[in-house]
Each structure stands twice: as C-alpha cells, then as structure tokens.
Fold this sequence. Notes:
By secondary structure, this protein is of the alpha/beta class. The protein has helices spanning 2-21, 140-155, 194-199, 203-206, 286-297, 329-342, 352-357, 387-399, and strands at 28-30, 34-37, 42-50, 54-58, 63-67, 73-78, 87-95, 100-107, 118-128, 163-167, 182-186, 191-192, 216-223, 230-233, 236-238, 247-249, 264-267, 359-361, 368-370, 428-429. The strands form five sheets. Strands 9, 10, 11, 12, 13, 14, 17 and 20 form an eight-stranded mixed β-sheet that branches. A four-stranded antiparallel β-sheet has the order 1-3-6-5, with no helix packed on it.
Amino acid sequence: MKLKYLFILLAIALLYSCSEDEAPEPVLVLENTELSAEAQGGDYVIGINSSSQWKVTAASAWVSCQSSENHDQILIRVSENLQRDERTANITVTNEENLTQSVTLTQTAYTFNENHRYKLPVVFHTLYWNQSNKQHYVEEAQLQKLLERVNDYYANSGVDMNVEFVMAEEDPDGNVLAEPGIDRKKWQYTTMDCSIFMGSGQEQYKNLLWDTERYVNVVLYNFSDPQIMGIAQFPWMPAPYELPGAGQMEQGADPDSNPYPQCVSINNKYIYDLPDEGDVYSMSNVAVTLSHELGHFLGLYHAFNQQINGNTNTNEDTDYCTDTPPYNKYLYDNALNAYFQTNPEITSKSSEAYSTYVMRTNSQTLEPFRSTNIMDYAITDGNRFTAEQAARVKYTLQHALFMPGPKDHSKADCKTKSNSEFRFTPQFIE
Length: 430
C-alpha cells in the first residue's frame, strides 16, 4: 500500500513540475495601433511588449522604423508631407513566434495659409538611348549638385522667394527612388525639337511626366537647336484668380484636358556646364539656366523688353514688374554679336569685355545699369530677383494649376466640366 501511495504522490509531483516548467504564452502587444503625424513630419515612439525578438517594416517610402536599444519601443521617423492630400501607411511588427501586429499611420497635409513656405519636389526625367552616354544618362551627383546650386541662387537672390526645390524621394506609386529626384527613361528620340516637345500636344510627351500636382517635372534631352539652353511652360490660373501675362482657365473647365506637358525642358548638351563660383564665367551655366526656366515656370517673364506683335525692337516694359529696369534686347544683342564677330568667348568676370557687356541701358530713362537679374541672359551676373518678381512667384505658388503645394482655389471650380470645351494654348518661353 505504501508503494502504491508513493507512486501516486510521485505522479502528482511530476505533473505539478511539468505545469510549472511550461513555456509562457507568446505575446506581442503594441501600446498603440493607430498613430497620427503632423504634415511637417518628425519622430514618434510606440511602446512594445514582445516575448521574443521582433522586426518592424513600413510599406511606404516616407516612413522609416527601427527598434530602440532596449527593444521595448518602435522608433518611427516620418518625412515631411509635400503632397496636397492626407496620406496613410501601414507599419507591421512580427516576432519570432510569428505573431503580427499592425499600426496605421496617418499624416495630415498642409492646409493653405498665406505664410506657407513652399518646398517643391523635383524629378529630372533623363531621356537616353545608350546608358554609357553620360551626356544623356546624366550622373546622379551632377543633378544633385545642380539643384543645390539653383537653391543657392533662390536663397541668396536679395529677396525672399518663398520656395525651395527638393529632390523627390518617391515615385508616384510610393516606391523609394533609388536615385532621389531622377527618373531614367530609355527613349528613342534623344534629340528633339524643344518647341515641338512643349507645344505639339502629343500624348507621348505628356505621358513622360509625373503628377504635376505632386512634382515639378524637368525633362533632360538634346535640343535640335543647340543655341537654346532651356524652355518652360508658363503657369495657368483657374478663374477668377488672375496673374497678368499668365493663362487663365475658365470656371468649370477640366484641367486634365490640357494636352501640353507642363514642365521645364533643359538641353542636356550643357548639363555639365556648372563652373565653380569665382571669376570663371560661362554664358551656358546650367544652374543659371535652370534657375531662369524655373522662374518662367513660376510666372516670371524676361527682365528685358519682350517681342510685341512681332516687333523685337521695342522700348516697352513687358515683364509686369516695375522694379526690373527694362532695356531694348534687340539693340543689346546687335552690339554683343558685333563684338563676338572678332573676339573670343567671354570667360572671365574680371575681363574688360565682361565689364562692358554686363551693363545695360534703361530703355525708358536712358540710364545705365548692371544686369543682375536671373530672368535676363547673355552677359549677366544672373543672381538676383526683385520684390515684385517674388510677389508674382508667391501668387503663382498659392493659386496656379499644375503646381505642387497647398493652394487657394476656394473661389474656383476646376473639376466640373463646363458646357463648352475649353481650349488650352501652349505658353512656353525660353
């Protein structure tokens, strides 16, 4: 009997011992499963309790996640939202026991206000046929340096231009760009007439562009006219918003009916012409060219007197900015071309020729002045904007169609088609 009772006690003890040694139930608990982020982005933290090692992934390019040092927190970094709309992303946590939890991250968009500081994502569409041709298959570092130089011009232009250009970080589907701000397209026509590209209305050209409400599109290709360095479409305003000299789309018209590529085109013949700051001068400096063309894209005309009704020999002030002294470009070009007939290219800012031809004559007061405006060209310092130019750019950023960033369209009706078809007319300018 004693042996029988002893056996029962041992069995009970073994059972008790087994229950004590059983592994605890696997656990994966998140402090929050929903997270809200501000438009400006930032760093966020979610506490986590897991019974084993875990890993975290984010499905969107604008979110990055990692574990804290003690593995008790998810550290989340959210990029600034430069789109017009709220956006969402899913964050997934999985541990070694295959338990999974998800976090829904929602990020607000900037709402329009008069003091908003604009950051415009730029994508360079580089058209190439042969990848080994670096003139067409432009090096990533060169494009990064180019945009940095453009931002330097705008930031140090003497006035607040209220805009910064940034390399786009993701494609329209939300995928991380391996090369920020660059979209490489194998393209049969690496040499094209830029006027046809900008003004023919062919779908193949427009289809090269990414969403114009999210990106500033800059297309790089070889121009058939080697004398043209860049060209840009002018902005469109939705009625009743109006900018003198800019196109206006009537109430109720459909912006999607615009057949023309709303973009900037740059001649990649000059893409590596980016001299260091100093005494070296180049009339084809690509940073000045892109700064100039982006100025057109943002609503600025040439600082000199434009052609009027076919007349290039005019003394009229035609850029809608009274603080940019006008000059007769026709007369200036005649004098400069005469110089080049018997003299070499001007390559030094300290040269006598530069000192002579950087000067202009005000066509209305006949007073001499130095050319400094980015919206001029030929021999020019090309490093300044004016207050009235900055005001035009600000108005464009706040109201124009086909332009990234928050907009005030409160008085416009741009989505409901009108009864009559609205005809867009291309408005490109070199």
